[in-house]
Each structure stands twice: as C-alpha cells, then as structure tokens.
Write a structure and sequence with these properties.
With about 180 residues, the protein is of the alpha/beta class. The protein has helices at about 5-15, 25-30, 50-55, 70-80, 120-125, 155-160, and strands at about 40-45, 60-65, 85-90, 105-110, 125-135, 165-175, 175-180. About 30% of the residues lie in helices and about 25% in strands. The protein has a seven-stranded mixed β-sheet with strand order 3-2-1-4-5-7-6.
Length: about 180
C-alpha cells in the first residue's frame, strides 16, 4: 500500500462511504471459539467492529489498518465499551507490517486481499490456530464494477492460498469467497 492508498481510505471513511459502525462478520461469529485470553489479529480491520467483538468474547486483539480515521473510530468504540485493555489498534502499511511467528490463536482478514501475505499468516498462527478469510471474487464485478482484477479472487483460489492447513469451511456466495482453516498442530 502507499501513501495514496492511505489518503483514499481516510477519505472513504471520512465521507461515510464505508460505515464506521456495523456488526461483526458472520463467519467470525460462527467460527471463532471463545477467546479465553487467546491473542487474535484482524488485518485491514477498518473501524474495528470485528476487533471489538473478539475482545468482548475473551480475546486480546490487535487490529491493523492503514486508515487513521477508521482506527480513531475503533479506539473511541473500544474506550466506550471499556475494552481498551484488551485491544490494540496499529496504523500500518500491510506491505511493511511484520507478523510475528506463532503468535496468534486466530487471524481474521475480511474484504482485503494480498496474496503475498498467506505464507506469513500461516506462520503467524500458533499450532492449531484458526484463519478466517472472506473477500471479493471475480463475480463481484457483475454487480459492482470497478475493483481492479488483482483485488478479486478466482474460483477456488482461497483454498489454494490456504494450502497446508486443515480446511474447515470454504465457499462462494454473491461475489464473496471464504475459507476457514486451522493450522497444523
């Protein structure tokens, strides 16, 4: 990502194009086990709706995003919900962000795609850790023209990107693809 990307996302969150408050991702609420003080990561977290849900369910959570505007909203929401001690928001360019190895019990990535990150995501999970990814696929363009092709998944691509993991769920619906996978023990 670049400074230009950061400006674009800050403008989108400032303009109201992307809602600052919304419910957590349904895949996350369905698949995430109780946190019991586990450590979770939400990459490209936006204003942190998934981060806050994970914190409410027992996780210590790091949310990473490039948009200062979105992160500011997440921080305000965490304070209002008295979750400040359970969450950490990090403003970072994901092209430069270093994922610590074997650190997270759960990693969520929603509506963000950087194929180069998948080996790093796998390495950042504890043995038996859970990876939940949902993002746009090529069918998205049928109803939403505009996203560049490199931001869209091909058929079955997520399953290939999660190779070497135990696939718990995979699927495609309405221009979105998902995979839920557990790292090897």
């Amino acid at each position: 990502m670049t400074r230009k990307d950061q400006i674009r996302w800050n403008q989108r969150y400032s303009s109201g194009e992307y809602p600052l408050a919304k419910p957590p991702n349904p895949l996350l609420t369905h698949w995430a086990p109780p946190g019991e003080d586990g450590f979770a990561l939400d990459l490209a977290c936006g204003p942190g709706h998934n981060v806050l849900w994970l914190a409410r369910h027992g996780y210590r959570v790091m949310g990473v995003d490039i948009s200062r505007i979105a992160l500011r909203q997440g921080i305000q929401s965490a304070r209002a919900d008295h979750l400040g001690g359970r969450v950490c928001f990090v403003e970072a360019d994901l092209d430069q962000f270093v994922l610590p190895p074997s650190c997270f019990n759960l990693i969520g990535v929603f509506r963000f795609l950087d194929r180069r990150l998948f080996p790093l995501l796998r390495a950042a999970l504890h043995p038996g850790g859970l990876l939940i990814v949902e993002t746009l696929n090529v069918a998205w363009r049928e109803t939403h023209p505009g996203p560049p092709e490199h931001y869209l998944l091909e058929s079955s691509e997520l399953t290939r990107l999660a190779s070497g993991m135990h696939i718990l769920s995979e699927g495609t619906t309405q221009g979105l693809s998902h995979v839920v996978a557990r790292s090897k023990l």
